[in-house]
Amino acid sequence: YQRRVHGDILSVYFFSNIYLKTMKNFISASAASKLKARFVDCRWSLQDASFGMAAFKAGHLPFATFADVETDLSGPMTPTSGRHPLPDISVFSQWLRVKGLSPELPVVVYDDMGGGCSGRLWWMLRCLGFQEVRVLEGGSALR
User: What would the DSSP string read from start to end of 65-112?
Assistant: First the structure.
């Protein structure tokens, strides 16, 4: 995905949300339940970096795994990188392997921000060639 990245994370956020809405890449809970998909919880809070994991531990969709925006979906911050630079592709690829995510399997991502955080993972996966990636309509409210 590094070759396709233009600009900073703000442009990634806006691009992913615009693309998500215009290309209908959301999936309903009923449709998602029929897939043999991997679910990824992307809940996060700018005010509290520990919120996502705490929310995941308090309850999540069955068989979901957790993606931490700060550590899994971002690389180290530098003076010129912005707050949440994209992670190194080799580090992110290793994370995908550990989580059991591969382009051959459908992936459903969700958060509690209407796709604000899950859209980031959706975009990153699409850039790596994942074709069956969807954002869950209603997000974590469905658990």
Answer: EE--TTTTS-----TTT-SSPPPPHHHHHHHHHHHT--TTS-EEEE-S
Residue ranges of the alpha helices (H) in the chain?
9-23, 29-33, 51-58, 89-99, 118-127
**pTM, to two decimals:** 0.82
Pick the range with the lowest mean pLDDT from 77-86, 90-99, 102-111.
Answer: 77-86
**pLDDT tens figures, 47-80:** 998 999 999 999 999 899 999 999 999 988 888 8
The strand pairing partners of 66, in sequence order, are 41
Residue where the block lists tokens 């912005």: 82
- Whether the Cβ atoms of residue 23 and residue 123 lie closer than 8 Å to each other: no
Which backbone phi and psi does 133 adopt, to 5 degrees?
A: -125, 130
Block residue for tokens 């919120």: 51
In degrees and rounded to multiples of 5, residue 113 shows phi and psi of -125, 25
CB 98 within 8 A of CB 22: no
